[in-house]
Amino acid sequence: MSDRELLRLVDVRKSYSRRGGPDHEVLGGIDLTVTAGEVVCLIGASGSGKSTLLRCIDLLDEVDDGEIWFDGREITDPRVEPDDVRRRIGVVFQAYNLFPHLTVRDNITLGPVRVHGRSRSDARRSAQALLERVGLPDKGTAYPDELSGGQQQRVALARAVAGDPELLLLDEVTAALDPLLVGEVLQVVRGLAADGMTIVMATHEMAFAREVADRVVFLADGRIEEAGTAEQVFTAPRSTRTAEFLARFRGV
How confident is the model at residue 139 (pLDDT cuts 50, 70, 90)? Predict the structure, then answer.
């Protein structure tokens, strides 16, 4: 982990309109800085704003107020082309979102070839290396529906890093998996973190967050209730709300 600031959020706010009622504030002024090579885990109850925060960073959702800076550039500036930013960010959501009509290898090579302009042969070599890295070396010609959920999510991770992103956003990547398959996906994430990938990850896997995260950020009602090292947050939370949330996860 370096001291170079890669991502900075300044007073980021986001609300959604509700039919027949006042707007629902999802993010109520988020200030967050992430340095290159850092692993930041976002924890909190469902509806606390974790997923919306990740979507705002990837410019999938437009912020209502505040600024997001990526590698020294304000990406919430309306003059910024979102696709230029997304080329440098990998994203994996709860749903695998693999193209069902493409093989595993073609799912992984699509972005590098069409978005990053790499040759097909180079992209295929890289895809095979990534499949070996995620433990699926013999699945390149398989189709998504021939894989288990854990295997599909590992392919999604391989696809996300195929373009050599500077930042990886993971949104509850194990939430849709059978408990028996969670470990194989987290092992891939663990390897990416060990290799120095900058990761911002929303998760309910508290033991994993405690083990891997450089910093843990607890969100409640769209605000950062507490942030600190994993050791500090899990062993000596300063906020009562943090302590009450963590008490639900015995053995952490």
Answer: very high
